[in-house]
């Protein structure tokens, strides 16, 4: 077990020297979480738009479910995906368990409700504001949704960034379906958990630094997107 | 010019007509047997006290609200989807898209599959916003926003143009420009239905004035007849209060 100051020094050294193992883990983390974010947006945004702009029987129940799913425990998602992808599961024949693809699927399931619920809120607020004007223009539903998504692009970008933030910091689901296999499915969060349990704090701290930096960058991006949009009155 | 009686007797096939409209969300009867016949062109004002139902009437005529009873017709026929597409409305508080000035007009043009930058620029010039194409629409002043909303409505080349207090709280220059554009539209044969609290504006612009009180039209006559000798007690009281003020 290293002392904290010794570990911090080693961690800084790993980051500064661009350690190959460290950056392999960072690259995989970004690949998995960015892929999951893109997929979650592909599913979540249309779902959010549908919930925001249509009225149907059972909509209230659908909203409650989507909002509740925002708080899905990652380990439950991991377990669910594991059961489906394991050899005896219905999708076992795909051979995806313990691959980055399985991790992407788990993270996608985890953050899709977040993207759907937050984008629903953004688009519904905007739809309420535009509703009368759009009816006056006699717009069809597709034109209406296209206009809402375009006008809400800055707010929706922050929704996507929030989803990415949640995905990249998540550990429970990816460790179950990815298995934390070195050079294959080891991402920042699972590596931190492993290295900490081994008492190897240098790599864990180095990854923690990268993760924190990433969180800072994401938040700075959200802030700057909002500030730009507000400045030009497009928010 | 028609006189008082002929406006009241305009038949339902004259232009835009509303017959015995009722609108009562919840338990409050906001529009209560409203009947109004307008010719198919000209500027026609709805005036009346706050809460009388002027804006609601406009929304019912435009189809933004569905009446509980009664019918709105265009040239004697039930309002069709194509009739509605040829209508536009300028709201008291303009709702502009979160886009540039030009993109706001382009949006409407594209929705009618008629994107035409030359026409758009001509419209912006007409409302005094030439050279402002790339400016964010929501950073315009109140008067400029309203003029942009009018340009957007005109982009539809409307057959019927509804305006809900379009010059309320605007400076005199912006108000005058909007009034000039309405006069031009009248010249082009557009039917403009204007809600206003500005009696001077109604006098200057309107071919006829309909007085709304408690969800009904209690008087509809030529502008001259209305201001010279209002026949309804409600209109007389309203105008005499304005004279006192």
From TrEMBL, chain A:
Record Pfam families: BPD_transp_1
Top-rank taxon, per record: Bacteria
Transmembrane region(s): 30-52, 64-85, 97-118, 154-181, 201-222
InterPro entries documented for this protein: ABC_perm_TupB-like (IPR049783), MetI-like (IPR000515), MetI-like_sf (IPR035906)
Any one of the GO CC terms: plasma membrane
GO biological process terms, semicolon-separated: transmembrane transport
SUPFAM superfamilies: MetI-like
Chief location: membrane
Domain annotation ABC transmembrane type-1: ranges: 26-222
Record membrane topology: Multi-pass membrane protein
Keywords for the protein's UniProt record, in alphabetical order: Membrane, Transmembrane, Transmembrane helix, Transport
Record localization: Cell membrane
Family (UniProt): Belongs to the binding-protein-dependent transport system permease family.
Protein name: Tungstate transport system permease protein
Taxonomic placement: Bacteria, Pseudomonadati, Pseudomonadota, Alphaproteobacteria, Rhodobacterales
UniProtKB/TrEMBL annotation, chain B:
Keyword match Transmembrane: no
Top-level taxon of origin: Bacteria
Keywords from the named record: ATP-binding, Nucleotide-binding, Transport
Pfam families: ABC_tran (PF00005)
Domain ABC transporter: 16-239
A GO MF label: ATP hydrolysis activity
Protein name, UniProt field: Tungstate transport system ATP-binding protein
Organism: Marivita hallyeonensis
